């Protein structure tokens, strides 16, 4: 890789965003919500590592920090793609979309 291209590389997010995510993750509200939803406390370590790697890249242009940050973002995107949509997306509108709604007829829920 060209050295000038490496120097001009920017993290996918600003370092402050990683810090904000870490603070949110550590918040009492998030701990309560995560415990209620999943039965465990959230692990916030990755956000802190990402923040530290981002700062390390900005200060010292450390290539190991850059690669760790890229790997983390790739893992985060791959994790998000694992979930299937809850609703089936329509390809076309319903045939009777232009007709007025019948207020007396109960709507499908």
UniProtKB/TrEMBL annotation:
Coiled-coil zones: none
A Pfam family hit: PANTS-like
Tree of life domain: Eukaryota
Location(s), subcellular: Synaptic cleft
Region entry Disordered, spans: 90-109
PANTHER family per record: UPF0545 PROTEIN C22ORF39 (PTHR28052)
Family stated for the protein in its record: Belongs to the UPF0545 family.
The protein's name in its UniProt record: Synaptic plasticity regulator PANTS
Source organism per UniProt: Lates japonicus
Top-level taxonomy: Eukaryota, Metazoa, Chordata, Craniata, Vertebrata
């Amino acid at each position: 890789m060209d050295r000038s291209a490496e120097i001009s590389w920017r993290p996918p997010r600003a370092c402050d965003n990683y810090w904000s995510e870490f603070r949110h993750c550590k918040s009492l509200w998030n701990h309560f919500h995560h415990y209620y939803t999943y039965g465990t406390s959230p692990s916030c370590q990755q956000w802190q590592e990402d923040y530290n790697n981002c700062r390390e890249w900005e200060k010292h242009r450390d290539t190991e920090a850059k690669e760790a940050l890229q790997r983390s973002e790739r893992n985060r995107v791959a994790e998000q793609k694992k979930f299937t949509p809850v609703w089936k997306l329509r390809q076309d509108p319903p045939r009777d979309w232009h007709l007025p709604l019948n207020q007396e007829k109960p709507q499908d829920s």
